[in-house]
Amino acid sequence: xxxxxxxxxxxxxxxxxxxxxxxxGRPTPDNGCVKLNTNENPFPLPGIVxxxxxxxxELQYLYPEDDNVSLRQAAAAAYGIxxxxxxxxxxxxxxxxxxxxAFLAPGDGVAMMSPGxxxxxxxxxxxxxxxxxxxxxxxxxxxxxELLFGAAKHAKFILLANPNNPTGTFVPLAEIERxxxxxxxxxxxxxxxxxxxxxxxxxLVERHSNLLVLRTFSKSYSAAGIRVGFGFGHxxxxxxxxxxxxxxxxxxxxxxxxxxxxxxxxAYEENHRHVRLERQRVAAxxxxxxxxxxxxxxxxxxxxxxxxxxxRWWQAALEDHKVLVAFFPDAGLEECIRxxxxxxxxxxxxxxxxxxxxKKVGCRG
Length: 365
Ligand SMILES: Cc1ncc(COP(=O)(O)O)c(C=O)c1O
Hints:
Layout: H1 3-10, H2 14-18, E1 34-36, H3 47-56, H4 69-79, E2 86-89, H5 92-103, E3 109-114, H6 119-126, E4 130-135, H7 144-149, E5 157-161, H8 173-182, E6 186-190, E7 211-216, E8 229-233, H9 235-243, H10 252-263, H11 269-288, E9 292-293, E10 300-304, H12 311-320, E11 323-325, E12 336-340, H13 344-360
Parallel strand pairs: 1-11, 3-4, 3-5, 5-6, 6-7
Antiparallel strand pairs: 2-8, 7-8, 9-10, 10-12
Helix pairs in contact: 3-10, 4-10, 5-6, 11-13
Bound molecules: pyridoxal-5'-phosphate.
Pyridoxal-5'-phosphate is lined by residues 39, 91-93, 117, 161, 165, 190, 192, 216, 218, 224, 229.
């Protein structure tokens, strides 16, 4: 490293220095692979949504609408909520990072049900905040005492993804409402996967001022690459968050796709049905192979691998078969892989790959 570069890097903030640099020239590993590692929805946009995206390109010379007014209005109408309770984001991860910036000063605490969505750890670190992980004791109920009187007591907010990532487990709304009633903390309910689940928490927003619900079009609406997310909460809270948002945070294509998806959500019903059925089929097949599969309410499965090799080994073995799955070395998931539910063709590539790996290591397959 030359002296000038070294001097420049040494003036990074301590937090930015702590985060490991990404290896330069990192290859794109998913070339030609069946990509089941990031929970996208691999189906094309409905034709009408796609046409709105293409038409929006003709507006490329204009800034997008300030404060996403019409997109927020459309979301409000679609979800039956007041417009000033809605904010729109460049994916829900933009909204998550705004919440961290709005609430956390160095030394403050933020609590997350763990294992949970690991991006939150990085966001806490960027704020110099303490990241408090509250372990799940049961997959479908909250450790209420721990959240109310334990380590999370002084957290500025509590994060709960429902369905949860990477487990796919789901907490019934009645349980979440019990927490909202008893806690004076902000509860951030991240519903990235809720379209694959039995019920959603949006109606709780009008009843509880300490609730912020996040949604995304990345998982259930096939728009991960377009970046559309929404936040729903009390107008005072939403107003404060909108205040610190980037100007023109969404581009014109994201804006058009967001509007069009909101108008045509019924066009996705078949897609969501496919995901649920395929999830069931793949879970049964993996169980047959000797995996222990966590019942999932999302578009992915967390599976404990058969005794012998760990999750990292399975991830590499599947990659040799050109199938990408996720592995989480932290949070007690060393023996697990997470597999997104894709098209039937993708899953029909994944399952025989599992079978052939098992055959090679001398297990049934
Ligand atoms: C629980 C959870 N929340 C939020 C996100 C971010 O989604 P988006 O694409 O809207 O930024 C993800 C993506 O994996 C997720 O799993």
